[in-house]
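Internal ticket - ligand job 176, AR6:
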Amino acid sequence: MKKEVGEVILEAVHGDIASQPDMTAIVNAANAQLMPGGGVAGAIHRAAGPGLAEECRPLAPIEPGQAIISGAHNLPNKYVIHCLGPVYGNDKPENILLADCYRNSLRLADEKQIDSIAFPAISTGIFGYPFEAATDITLQTILEVIPDLKYVRHIRFVLFGEEDFEVYVERLRDIK
Ligand code: AR6
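stdout (structure tokens):
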């Protein structure tokens, strides 16, 4: 499912964030220590190999809402942007911190002249953010940032669950 917004293509796919070979950058739903974990972080570090954790170690810890960039090691991409989402019910205000994740990741990508970037649904797994509320914040933030982007022209959302994918399809369809 693709939607054009100005000069940018928004796309939702059902799949694995670590298997997006046509994207210049992928985003990691990281932990503060930037170490391998479960979910997205586990999949990314497994596919990247131990060099990714080694490169990230001196950049940790990061704060909720912050984004940093590294190489992609054995992944088929050029960069990984690591973002720490808020833990729902704990890191507050969680809607602002989640919006910061997407805003800071996109700004960093644009600074690096990255043309294409794939996001997972940050904070909606182990960190417990309700999926539909997180999706609304994500898309609202991205629509706010799009007019400022000079290089990013393709933003993909990679959803692991079929139902999660359907939520994105519906929300993208609703964008005027
Ligand atoms: N590709 C795309 N999406 C995925 C994948 C995958 N391979 N695996 C899970 N998801 P999570 P968080 C979905 O838990 O909530 C880690 O252990 C998943 O269904 O990866 O930000 C870190 O080390 C959910 O919708 O990230 C942190 O400690 C979404 O991706 C903590 O979990 C995010 O799930 C971060 O928690």
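Auto-summary: Residues 2-174 form a domain with the Leucine Aminopeptidase, subunit E; domain 1 fold (CATH 3.40.220.10). The pocket of AR6 is lined by residues 16-18, 29, 31, 37-41, 43, 85, 120-127, 158, 160-161, 164 (CB under 6 Å).
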